[in-house]
Design a protein that fits this description.
It holds the Pfam family MOSC. InterPro entries: Benzoxazolinone_Detox_Enz, MoCF_Sase_C, Pyrv_Knase-like_insert_dom_sf. Residues 31-179 form the MOSC domain. GO terms for molecular function: catalytic activity; molybdenum ion binding; pyridoxal phosphate binding. By secondary structure, the protein is α+β, with helices and mostly antiparallel strands. It has a single domain (3-222), classed as PK beta-barrel domain-like (M1 Pyruvate Kinase, Domain 3), CATH 2.40.33.20. It has five helices and twelve strands. It has helices spanning 80-90, 137-143, 148-154, 188-197, 213-222, and strands at 3-13, 16-17, 25-26, 30-33, 37-39, 75-79, 103-106, 118-121, 125-132, 160-166, 168-170, 175-180. It starts with a strand and ends with a helix.
Length: 225
Protein backbone atom coordinates (compact mmCIF):
# COMPACT_ATOMS: atom_id res chain seq x y z
CA UNK A 1 0.00 0.00 0.00
CA UNK A 2 2.06 2.93 -1.29
CA UNK A 3 1.58 6.62 -0.63
CA UNK A 4 0.22 8.25 -3.78
CA UNK A 5 -0.72 11.75 -2.66
CA UNK A 6 -1.68 14.01 0.20
CA UNK A 7 -4.37 16.37 1.37
CA UNK A 8 -3.27 19.92 0.66
CA UNK A 9 -6.30 21.64 2.24
CA UNK A 10 -9.45 20.70 4.14
CA UNK A 11 -12.19 23.20 3.26
CA UNK A 12 -15.40 24.00 5.14
CA UNK A 13 -18.36 26.09 3.94
CA UNK A 14 -18.67 29.73 4.87
CA UNK A 15 -22.32 30.34 3.86
CA UNK A 16 -23.03 33.27 1.59
CA UNK A 17 -26.01 34.66 -0.27
CA UNK A 18 -26.76 33.18 -3.68
CA UNK A 19 -28.84 34.75 -6.45
CA UNK A 20 -28.50 31.69 -8.66
CA UNK A 21 -31.06 29.42 -7.00
CA UNK A 22 -34.20 29.63 -4.93
CA UNK A 23 -32.38 28.34 -1.84
CA UNK A 24 -31.01 31.86 -1.38
CA UNK A 25 -27.92 30.68 0.51
CA UNK A 26 -25.02 28.60 -0.75
CA UNK A 27 -22.21 26.63 0.89
CA UNK A 28 -20.00 26.65 -2.22
CA UNK A 29 -17.74 29.23 -0.56
CA UNK A 30 -15.36 26.88 1.23
CA UNK A 31 -12.36 28.07 3.22
CA UNK A 32 -9.40 26.04 4.54
CA UNK A 33 -9.13 25.02 8.18
CA UNK A 34 -6.00 23.88 9.99
CA UNK A 35 -7.50 21.60 12.63
CA UNK A 36 -8.50 17.92 12.24
CA UNK A 37 -12.04 17.50 10.92
CA UNK A 38 -14.30 14.49 11.51
CA UNK A 39 -15.71 12.75 8.43
CA UNK A 40 -18.64 10.30 8.54
CA UNK A 41 -21.53 9.24 6.32
CA UNK A 42 -24.39 11.76 6.54
CA UNK A 43 -26.83 8.86 6.73
CA UNK A 44 -29.23 9.56 3.89
CA UNK A 45 -29.80 10.53 0.28
CA UNK A 46 -29.92 13.91 -1.45
CA UNK A 47 -32.91 15.95 -0.38
CA UNK A 48 -33.45 13.94 2.81
CA UNK A 49 -31.11 15.81 5.14
CA UNK A 50 -30.79 19.31 6.55
CA UNK A 51 -28.05 21.68 5.27
CA UNK A 52 -26.10 21.04 8.48
CA UNK A 53 -26.15 17.27 8.01
CA UNK A 54 -26.07 16.78 4.21
CA UNK A 55 -22.26 16.80 4.09
CA UNK A 56 -20.07 14.09 5.52
CA UNK A 57 -17.55 16.69 6.70
CA UNK A 58 -18.19 18.05 10.18
CA UNK A 59 -18.92 21.77 10.18
CA UNK A 60 -19.66 21.86 6.46
CA UNK A 61 -23.08 22.91 5.12
CA UNK A 62 -24.95 22.16 1.87
CA UNK A 63 -28.02 24.26 1.16
CA UNK A 64 -29.08 22.89 -2.23
CA UNK A 65 -29.90 19.50 -0.75
CA UNK A 66 -31.99 18.53 -3.77
CA UNK A 67 -28.89 18.32 -5.97
CA UNK A 68 -25.97 17.97 -3.57
CA UNK A 69 -24.99 16.04 -0.45
CA UNK A 70 -26.07 12.74 1.04
CA UNK A 71 -24.15 9.50 1.42
CA UNK A 72 -23.02 9.30 -2.22
CA UNK A 73 -21.79 12.90 -2.19
CA UNK A 74 -20.49 13.00 1.36
CA UNK A 75 -17.10 14.44 0.40
CA UNK A 76 -15.95 16.33 -2.69
CA UNK A 77 -12.28 16.45 -3.75
CA UNK A 78 -10.43 18.43 -6.40
CA UNK A 79 -6.78 18.17 -7.40
CA UNK A 80 -4.37 21.09 -7.21
CA UNK A 81 -2.90 19.93 -10.50
CA UNK A 82 -6.26 20.44 -12.23
CA UNK A 83 -6.59 23.85 -10.60
CA UNK A 84 -3.19 24.71 -12.10
CA UNK A 85 -4.52 23.77 -15.55
CA UNK A 86 -7.58 25.96 -15.05
CA UNK A 87 -5.42 28.87 -13.88
CA UNK A 88 -3.60 28.84 -17.23
CA UNK A 89 -6.87 28.45 -19.12
CA UNK A 90 -8.63 31.31 -17.30
CA UNK A 91 -5.62 33.55 -16.68
CA UNK A 92 -6.43 34.00 -13.01
CA UNK A 93 -5.42 32.64 -9.62
CA UNK A 94 -7.67 29.91 -8.23
CA UNK A 95 -7.24 29.22 -4.51
CA UNK A 96 -8.13 25.79 -3.20
CA UNK A 97 -11.78 25.62 -2.19
CA UNK A 98 -13.11 28.00 -4.85
CA UNK A 99 -14.71 25.08 -6.70
CA UNK A 100 -16.48 24.11 -3.48
CA UNK A 101 -14.43 21.03 -2.68
CA UNK A 102 -13.87 19.71 0.83
CA UNK A 103 -10.47 18.25 0.04
CA UNK A 104 -7.89 19.91 -2.16
CA UNK A 105 -5.37 17.20 -3.04
CA UNK A 106 -1.99 16.92 -4.70
CA UNK A 107 0.00 14.03 -6.10
CA UNK A 108 -2.99 11.82 -6.88
CA UNK A 109 -5.08 11.91 -10.09
CA UNK A 110 -8.58 12.62 -8.78
CA UNK A 111 -10.18 12.62 -12.23
CA UNK A 112 -8.13 9.58 -13.17
CA UNK A 113 -9.42 7.62 -10.17
CA UNK A 114 -11.71 4.74 -11.08
CA UNK A 115 -15.39 4.84 -10.17
CA UNK A 116 -15.60 2.73 -7.00
CA UNK A 117 -11.92 3.14 -6.10
CA UNK A 118 -11.16 3.30 -2.36
CA UNK A 119 -8.70 5.64 -0.66
CA UNK A 120 -7.32 5.66 2.85
CA UNK A 121 -6.64 9.17 4.12
CA UNK A 122 -4.61 9.55 7.26
CA UNK A 123 -4.79 6.86 9.92
CA UNK A 124 -8.38 5.60 9.65
CA UNK A 125 -10.56 7.44 7.12
CA UNK A 126 -11.54 5.36 4.07
CA UNK A 127 -13.49 6.90 1.17
CA UNK A 128 -14.83 5.44 -2.07
CA UNK A 129 -15.25 7.41 -5.28
CA UNK A 130 -18.80 7.58 -6.66
CA UNK A 131 -18.95 10.03 -9.59
CA UNK A 132 -17.88 13.43 -10.87
CA UNK A 133 -19.38 16.76 -9.90
CA UNK A 134 -22.04 18.03 -12.34
CA UNK A 135 -21.73 21.84 -12.63
CA UNK A 136 -24.69 24.03 -11.70
CA UNK A 137 -25.83 27.65 -11.87
CA UNK A 138 -24.52 28.38 -8.37
CA UNK A 139 -21.06 27.27 -9.49
CA UNK A 140 -21.30 29.52 -12.55
CA UNK A 141 -22.37 32.50 -10.44
CA UNK A 142 -19.48 31.87 -8.03
CA UNK A 143 -16.91 31.74 -10.83
CA UNK A 144 -18.25 34.69 -12.81
CA UNK A 145 -16.98 33.16 -16.05
CA UNK A 146 -19.00 33.26 -19.31
CA UNK A 147 -20.72 29.93 -20.07
CA UNK A 148 -18.89 28.37 -17.16
CA UNK A 149 -21.18 25.34 -16.82
CA UNK A 150 -20.48 24.33 -20.44
CA UNK A 151 -16.75 25.10 -20.23
CA UNK A 152 -16.35 23.09 -17.06
CA UNK A 153 -18.30 20.15 -18.45
CA UNK A 154 -16.40 20.16 -21.75
CA UNK A 155 -13.01 19.67 -20.07
CA UNK A 156 -13.89 16.43 -18.21
CA UNK A 157 -12.13 17.62 -15.05
CA UNK A 158 -15.09 17.44 -12.64
CA UNK A 159 -13.35 16.33 -9.46
CA UNK A 160 -14.74 13.38 -7.52
CA UNK A 161 -17.48 12.77 -5.00
CA UNK A 162 -16.92 10.12 -2.34
CA UNK A 163 -18.98 8.03 0.04
CA UNK A 164 -17.57 7.26 3.49
CA UNK A 165 -16.58 3.61 3.99
CA UNK A 166 -14.84 4.03 7.35
CA UNK A 167 -15.23 7.28 9.31
CA UNK A 168 -12.23 9.13 10.66
CA UNK A 169 -10.51 12.49 10.88
CA UNK A 170 -8.79 14.41 8.11
CA UNK A 171 -6.44 17.36 8.13
CA UNK A 172 -4.05 19.12 5.78
CA UNK A 173 -0.91 17.07 5.22
CA UNK A 174 -2.59 13.66 5.57
CA UNK A 175 -1.28 10.99 3.25
CA UNK A 176 -3.61 9.46 0.65
CA UNK A 177 -3.22 5.79 -0.25
CA UNK A 178 -5.15 3.88 -2.90
CA UNK A 179 -6.46 0.71 -1.24
CA UNK A 180 -8.40 -0.90 -4.07
CA UNK A 181 -9.23 -0.33 -7.75
CA UNK A 182 -12.14 -2.08 -9.52
CA UNK A 183 -11.45 -4.17 -12.61
CA UNK A 184 -13.76 -2.19 -14.91
CA UNK A 185 -11.16 0.53 -15.61
CA UNK A 186 -13.65 3.40 -16.01
CA UNK A 187 -12.37 6.66 -14.55
CA UNK A 188 -14.28 9.52 -12.96
CA UNK A 189 -13.52 11.62 -16.03
CA UNK A 190 -14.76 8.94 -18.44
CA UNK A 191 -17.97 8.33 -16.51
CA UNK A 192 -18.62 12.07 -16.33
CA UNK A 193 -18.10 12.40 -20.09
CA UNK A 194 -20.57 9.60 -20.77
CA UNK A 195 -23.22 11.24 -18.57
CA UNK A 196 -22.72 14.78 -19.86
CA UNK A 197 -21.75 14.40 -23.50
CA UNK A 198 -21.90 10.82 -24.79
CA UNK A 199 -25.27 9.12 -24.21
CA UNK A 200 -24.16 6.28 -26.51
CA UNK A 201 -21.66 5.32 -23.79
CA UNK A 202 -24.14 5.25 -20.91
CA UNK A 203 -24.78 1.53 -21.24
CA UNK A 204 -21.11 0.95 -20.46
CA UNK A 205 -21.37 2.60 -17.05
CA UNK A 206 -24.89 1.60 -15.98
CA UNK A 207 -23.77 -1.41 -13.96
CA UNK A 208 -20.39 -0.24 -12.68
CA UNK A 209 -19.34 -1.15 -9.15
CA UNK A 210 -19.45 1.91 -6.89
CA UNK A 211 -21.87 3.96 -9.00
CA UNK A 212 -24.56 5.69 -6.88
CA UNK A 213 -27.82 3.76 -7.06
CA UNK A 214 -29.77 6.96 -7.76
CA UNK A 215 -27.56 7.70 -10.76
CA UNK A 216 -27.76 4.09 -11.90
CA UNK A 217 -31.56 4.37 -11.86
CA UNK A 218 -31.44 7.59 -13.88
CA UNK A 219 -29.14 6.00 -16.46
CA UNK A 220 -31.34 2.92 -16.77
CA UNK A 221 -34.38 5.17 -17.17
CA UNK A 222 -32.67 7.09 -19.98
CA UNK A 223 -31.72 3.81 -21.63
CA UNK A 224 -35.27 2.49 -21.07
CA UNK A 225 -33.90 -0.63 -19.39
Amino acid sequence: MSVTGRVLQVNIAVPERSTAKRVGTTGINKQPVTHPVAVAAPGGARGMLSPQHASGVAGDQIFDIKNHGGDDQAVYAYAREDYDWWEKELGRTLPGGIFGENLTTEGIPVNGALIGETWQIGATLVLQTTFGRVPCSTFQAKMGEPRWVKRFADQNLPGAYFRVVTPGNVQAGDEIRVLDRPDHGVTISEGFHAWMRAPDLLAQIADLEGLPESLRAEIRHKLKL
